[in-house]
Amino acid sequence: MNRLGILISGRGSNFEAIADAVANGSIAAEIVVVIANRPEARGLDAARQRGLNAISIPSKGLDREVYDHMLLEELHKQQVDLVCLAGFMRLLSGSFIRQFPNRILNIHPSLLPAFPGLDAQHQALEHGVKITGCTVHFVDEHLDAGPILLQAAVPVLDDDTVESLSARILREEHRIYPEAIRIVLSGRYATEGRRVIFS
Ligand code: GAR
Questions:
Q1: Cβ of 87 below 6 Å from ligand 1
Q2: CB 106 within 8 A of CB 27
Q3: Which atom belonging to ligand 1 lies closest to the Cα atom of 42?
Q4: Which of 38, 88, 98, 194 has the fewest CB within 10 Å, making it most exposed?
Q5: Model pLDDT for residues 17-59, shown as the tens digit of each residue
Q6: Residues 111, 95 within the same domain
């Protein structure tokens, strides 16, 4: 059985979408640990209510390498084989990423490479794009930059606010993140340069 480790910083709705897919059997895996870098992350309560192993490892004030080492210890202890970043608002160090080659996924609320970094939905509105969306990608050492697994497009409406646009994107996030995890766990893909080809 595949062993998932989920990293969160806040609300945890993507974590919940993944947990639902695990619970209904559409992802053949077990969530062995949910880790938040912020103790107040709401997703921790949701994970505990589901009876999952949910722990807080606060990152505040810690050097990146020191913090990532703490994370690695916990993930290795739980024998995690796929790490899913689900609203985890921290950059990971190269030494962390090299421990999980092609085994760290992230979801981002834009059609990358447009609007990386913080407040992607706000960036999309400010730029005036008519279509934005979300992306699930492998994590490499650059911000929101690794090979893309899945994307979904979402229209920007004239009367959208950051909140209304974010909500519409979030619905697609909850659909494509579990789907991307299924693809990675099935192994039915190959990477050619930056391209991820499904087989
Ligand atoms: C999601 O919209 C996710 O795409 C975004 O944070 C939100 C987390 O929501 N992630 C990023 O912006 C990463 N750069 P959630 O905690 O309810 O899953």
A1: yes
A2: no
A3: 16
A4: 98
A5: 999 999 999 999 999 999 999 999 999 999 999 999 999 999 9
A6: no
Minimum-distance ligand 1 atom for the alpha carbon of 16: 18
Q: What CATH number should be reported for the domain holding residue 130? A: 3.40.50.170
Asked if 82 and 124 sit in the same domain, the reply is: no
Can you give the pTM of this predicted structure?
Answer: 0.98
* Residues contacting 113, CB < 8 A, separation 6+: 144, 145
What is the per-residue pLDDT across 160-180, written as a single tens digit (0 to 9) for each?
Answer: 999 999 999 999 999 999 999
Residue 26's identity, in one-letter code, is S
Whether ligand 1 lies within 6 angstroms of the CB of 137 is answered as: no
Which run of H or of E encompasses 166?
Answer: helix 162-186
If asked whether residues 156 and 80 sit together in one domain, one would say no
